[in-house]
Amino acid sequence: MRLDHIAIAAETLEDGVAWAEERLGVPLLAGGHHERYGTHNRLLGLSDGLYLEVIAPDDNATSDGPRWFDLDNFTGPPRLANWICEPDDFQEYLRHGMRSVAMSRGDLKWDMGVPADGSLPLGGGYPTVLKWHTDTPPGQGLPPSGCVLQKLTVCHPLARQISAELSPAFSDPRVTFKVTEEFQLQAELQTPNGRVVM
What we know:
- By secondary structure, this protein is mainly beta.
- The protein is 12% helix and 42% strand.
């Protein structure tokens, strides 16, 4: 299992992009629309085949059921809200309510683990899983931005159990788990603006 990307959620795409660009010091690139869930995004290539996504509801689109990434319930300022991994065995890690949903956007095709109610698995503590059906997923196709993910901390009441559940399939020295009363993701990046914590 490998870390594929991290996602910033926002009430509007404009707010999310402005929040991310101010902190990172680089412009986000065009993404696209997800017709099934009535959302749209912008993207940023990180190092080592990773990328960052800003995602928000698209007010001009409808959703086929609850929106993914728990966006129907998202309120407040933009924030890092989800981490997405690609396991070697996609079906094995469809856990904590996730079901396989076939997705596409332009030339990109993938299967995504999404609970029926659109929520995040374990409130975001357990990674959303996907399986790409393309030779060049965004992490490999996006141009480098000069931003490097140095550390991702998954803060959750069940952090120890989540870490144990993912071991030994998931072993990334950048990702650590911390027991806290509430869920939070924290990313440390080296950027043109210096060290940034999101």
